[in-house]
Design a protein that fits this description.
Elements (H helix, E strand, L loop, with lengths): L2 H7 L2 H7 L6 E2 L3 E4 L11 E4 L4 E4 L4 E3 L1 H9 L3 H12 L17 E7 L4 H9 L10 E7 L2 E9 L5 E4 L4 E4 L5 E3 L8 E5 L2 H9 L9 E4 L10 H4 L4 E5 L4 H13 L3 E3 L10 H8 L3
Parallel strand pairs: 12-13, 12-14, 14-15
Antiparallel strand pairs: 1-2, 2-3, 3-4, 4-5, 6-7, 7-8, 8-9, 9-10, 11-13
Helix pairs in contact: 3-4
Length: 282
C-alpha cells in the first residue's frame, strides 16, 4: 500500500491510540495531545481528525500518519508503511471500524447488564467472569452499523470498550477511581487496564482487596492520576511488564513515597491478567 492510500485509509486517532496516546482536550473535530518528542505539562500537539493531520505548536512541525510513526518509532518511511498496514488490519473490519474520527461518529444505543453469550465467553477466557457485575454491556452505532462490547466506565463518564476484536474508548478518556468506602484507605492499587483490576478483585485471598483502586485506562492518563496518588501513604503498582510499564513505574517511584512494584508477582507475564490466565485451573 502506497503513502497516499495509507493517509486516506488509516485514521490519525487510531495511529495515536496504537501508541497509547489519547487527547487531553478535544471537541468534535480537533484535539490537543502532549508532544510526541518531549515531556510537557501543557499539550501542544493539535490534531485535526477531519484533515487527518497534526501540528506541533511548540516546534512548528506538521505531521501526517506516516511521519507520526516515523517520529515515535524512529524509523524509515517504508518501515512506517509496514507498521500502518498492519495497524489497518489489526481489527476485523466486519466487527469494528478502525477509525473513530470524532465524538459525532458514534451513538450509544443501550447500556445494560452483560448477557450476550459472546461477551460472557470472552470474560470466561480472561478468567474474570466472577466480576461481570462491575461491567456493563454496551450497544452503539458507528457509521450506520451497530456494534456491542464490554464497557467499563471512567471518571468522566466515558466507556472503555472491549470484545474479542475491539479496544477503544467511547466518550472522554479518563482514569477510573474505585473507593472501597466513604473515606480513602491507606493504600491504593494502580492498574494499567481494567482487566488487571478485575483480576485483582478475583484474587481476594492473595491481595489486600480492601484498598482503593485506580485504573489508568492507559499510561498516557497518568497526568490525571497525580492529584489522586498524592493522597495515599502507600501505592501498589500492578503495571505491565514492558518498557512502557517499567517507565511509568520508575516515574511514580521517583515522585512518591512508599511505592511497591507488584509486577514482581508476575515476572514472566505481560500483566496480572495474563498471569491469572496461565495459572488458574480451567
Amino acid at each position: 500500500m502506497n503513502c497516499e492510500k495509507i493517509k486516506q485509509k488509516v485514521g490519525i486517532r487510531a495511529v495515536l491510540e496504537s501508541f497509547s496516546l489519547f487527547p487531553v482536550k478535544e471537541n468534535r473535530r480537533t484535539a490537543f495531545y502532549f508532544a510526541l518528542d518531549r515531556e510537557e505539562k501543557i499539550p501542544s500537539l493539535s490534531v485535526d481528525f477531519i484533515k487527518n493531520n497534526a501540528f506541533d505548536f511548540g516546534t512548528g512541525k506538521s505531521y501526517d500518519v506516516i511521519s507520526i510513526v516515523q517520529q515515535i518509532k524512529k524509523c524509515s518511511v517504508s518501515e512506517a508503511l509496514k507498521y500502518l498496514s498492519a495497524l489497518d488490519l489489526s481489527f476485523d473490519p466486519g466487527q469494528l471500524p478502525v477509525e473513530i474520527q470524532s465524538k459525532a461518529s458514534y451513538r450509544i444505543l443501550k447500556i445494560k447488564e452483560i448477557r450476550h453469550p459472546a461477551l460472557i465467553q470472552y470474560l470466561k477466557s480472561r478468567k474474570v467472569l466472577e466480576q461481570k457485575h462491575l461491567l456493563k454491556e454496551i450497544e452503539y452505532e458507528f457509521c450506520g452499523r451497530n456494534y456491542f462490547g464490554i464497557a467499563f466506565e471512567n471518571n468522566s463518564g466515558g466507556f472503555e470498550v472491549r470484545n474479542t476484536y475491539a479496544k477503544l474508548c467511547l466518550g472522554p478518556k479518563d482514569v477510573t477511581l474505585v473507593l472501597r468506602g466513604p473515606e480513602p484507605t491507606a493504600e491504593i492499587a494502580v492498574f494499567e487496564g481494567f482487566f488487571d483490576y478485575l483480576t485483582f478483585r478475583n484474587l481476594e485471598n492473595r491481595f489486600n482487596s480492601a484498598c482503593d483502586c485506580l485504573i489508568l485506562n492507559s499510561t498516557a492518563m497518568l497526568f490525571k492520576a497525580e492529584h489522586i496518588l498524592k493522597g495515599y501513604p502507600k501505592i501498589l503498582l500492578f503495571l505491565d511488564n514492558d518498557a512502557n510499564g517499567k517507565s511509568v513505574t520508575l516515574k511514580i517511584r521517583n515522585e512518591y513515597q512508599n511505592v511497591e512494584d507488584c509486577s514482581l508477582i508476575y515476572p514472566n507475564c505481560k500483566d496480572l491478567n495474563e498471569w491469572l490466565i496461565k495459572t488458574k485451573e480451567p
